[in-house]
Specification:
Blueprint lengths: L6 H4 L2 H13 L2 H27 L1 H6 L3 H28 L12 H30 L8 H33 L3 H24 L6 H23 L4 H30 L1 H6 L2 H29 L11 H31 L7 H33 L3 H27 L4
Length: about 425
């Protein structure tokens, strides 16, 4: 018979459940690294949300540009988070060497990232134009102008994101950081903060029609040629990365563009309470970053033989999934509180702190359930198909989450009667 005076007996049941859940996560180092990166990601996403709200005049001047924005933000994360994941696997496997030579593993990955940025930025503009016209957005900006904005803005943002990714790789070797825990959130952070101002700056290149037409055709041709050059490259890593990345990045662009359409079609939801527009980038970015963390951890463990690609996840995979679920609650509460406070600071209407938190957590239930399932089975699918899950995992997760996250947040706001 158990001792009625046992300390365990007197401990509240929720506390015991919390202790068991924490024990399931194993070492707290991964949670600590991830949580810091995720909070930084959310904080800077508020800046992106505020920037988004401050350039509404530009979106009116260039119809269809808003459709391009979520995919442009996601593209930075897809290209460079995948690059970080490949470097992380090389570090874990003992194959990494910091070298900028074109023949080195890092050098080929860098070149692949830049070539893919050029090519996918052009394809993004074409897809955004087709989708916007097909869904009835009238008087859209010409495809040449959209391509010029997308490519120039993409390059401006990508240079900074690339440098940050390389710094993280160097720091992981020197200080023992796990790139799988920090790359997706921090790269997404920079993508959020830099892409919107970079696109805005790029719009100044299209304000002189003759110059913009010629320049637009030139950069579009360069983007197409960059994809051809990467596809036919003789260096094996460069060729493999480009050939494996291009198809999945194109799919990612299409789905992320649908997120832009969902936002544009329900813009009245956000115009009533602009603080919800501040929440939107943080919500989508956090969901994608959590998916990126899970995808990166699973991919590395598959490479190292620590996880088998089974139809039902084993204990190690379930532990990684539990880590992501545990991180989600404080991150999304932080997003809601931060968006409310930033909205108040900027004088933008908010539905109230309580409703912001309910909206974020309600939408998070759908988004995170989707993220966990997709990250695990998407990684398994890549293994089964014989392609690198480091290259495929994050683009699959983040592109689908862009659309699903935007729809989940809008659905939750409307269903709960917040607007």
């Amino acid at each position: 018979m158990p001792d009625p005076f046992s300390p365990l007996r007197g401990r509240p049941r929720p506390l015991r459940l919390l202790r068991r859940f924490v024990a399931l996560l194993g070492s707290g180092e991964a949670a600590r690294q991830s949580l810091i990166a995720l909070m930084l990601n959310s904080t800077t996403s508020f800046v992106a949300g505020a920037a988004l709200g401050s350039i509404t005049g530009t979106f009116k001047e260039f119809p269809g540009l808003l459709v391009l924005v979520p995919a442009a933000i996601g593209l930075r994360g897809n290209v460079f988070s995948a690059l970080g994941n490949r470097l992380s696997t090389a570090i874990h496997a003992g194959l990494f060497r910091f070298s900028l030579r074109r023949q080195s593993l890092m050098g080929q990955n860098i070149e692949a990232g830049l070539l893919l940025t050029l090519a996918m930025s052009f394809l993004l503009a074409v897809v955004a134009k087709i989708v916007a016209v097909g869904l009835g957005i009238m008087r859209t900006t010409s495809v040449v102008d959209l391509a010029l904005i997308s490519i120039l803005g993409g390059l401006l943002a990508s240079v900074a994101v690339l440098v940050a990714t390389l710094v993280l790789a160097a720091g992981s070797v020197r200080y023992g950081w796990d790139l799988d825990n920090v790359t997706a959130p921090l790269v997404s952070t920079l993508g959020d903060v830099l892409t919107i101002p970079a696109l805005w700056l790029a719009t100044f290149a299209v304000r002189t029609s003759v110059v913009s037409d010629v320049l637009g055709v030139m950069v579009s041709a360069a983007a197409v040629l960059s994809l051809v050059a990467g596809w036919r490259a003789r260096r094996p890593v460069l060729r493999q990365v480009v050939r494996e990345s291009a198809p999945i990045l194109f799919v990612a662009v299409c789905f992320s563009t649908m997120a832009g359409i969902a936002i544009e079609k329900r813009l009245e939801v956000f115009s009533t309470f602009p603080a919800l527009l501040i929440l939107l980038p943080a919500f989508i970015s956090s969901a994608g970053a959590l998916g990126g963390i899970l995808s990166g951890r699973l991919s590395t463990k598959f490479h190292l033989g620590l996880i088998d690609p089974r139809p039902f996840p084993d204990r190690e995979a379930r532990r990684d999934g539990a880590l992501v679920v545990a991180l989600a609650a404080p991150v999304f509460v932080f997003n809601a509180v931060g968006a409310h406070l930033v909205g108040r600071l900027l004088g933008q209407a908010s539905p109230g702190l309580g409703k912001m938190v309910v909206a974020a957590l309600g939408a998070a239930v759908f988004a995170i359930a989707f993220v966990v399932v997709l990250a695990y089975y998407g990684t398994i699918a890549a293994i089964r198909l014989g392609v690198d899950p480091d290259t495929y995992g994050i683009p699959i997760v983040t592109s689908f989450v862009d659309f699903v996250g935007a729809v989940a947040l809008i659905f939750t706001i409307v269903t709960l009667g917040i607007v």
